[in-house]
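Morning - iron/sulfur cluster inputs below, output right after.
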Amino acid sequence: MLVSACLAGQPCRYDGRARPDDSIVEEVKAGRAIPACAEQLGGLPTPRAAAEIFGGDGHDVLDGEAKVLTIDGEDVTAPFVEGAQIVAGIAAEHGATHAVLQARSPSCGCGAVYDGTHTGQLMEGDGVVAALLKRQGLMITTVRGRSQHR
Ligand code: SF4
């Protein structure tokens, strides 16, 4: 199982904090889950400017039809896509069939992500990592509601 590193207690969020989930922390400690943070793996620093997908969702980003922009307007699409590809590679390497991801993130969100206006509004859709993992056939659960998506 692959998990968002911030849920495993790693302080890798854009604000330099973690978002530990007790059950995920336990799964990682027991060696049953692999933590990964796409935004760090894509080369972005921590802390970093908050980013949202603009013009679509993670599927559109992967298809070159939407961008990921920081709150300052910087285009960070390339590191987001690169990080997602690295995470997808890790999932494949470990034969992961399931991922538990942080809800709403422009990378890890699944089913709902922020809408690109940087106003806290959500829209239907997946983050870049979630979109790529779905395309790879993984079942995804998001933490915050624990809903399942295919
Ligand atoms: S939500 Fe995903 S990309 Fe964002 S900090 Fe957590 S693991 Fe990294």
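Note: The CA atoms of residues 78 and 117 lie 20 Å apart.

O.
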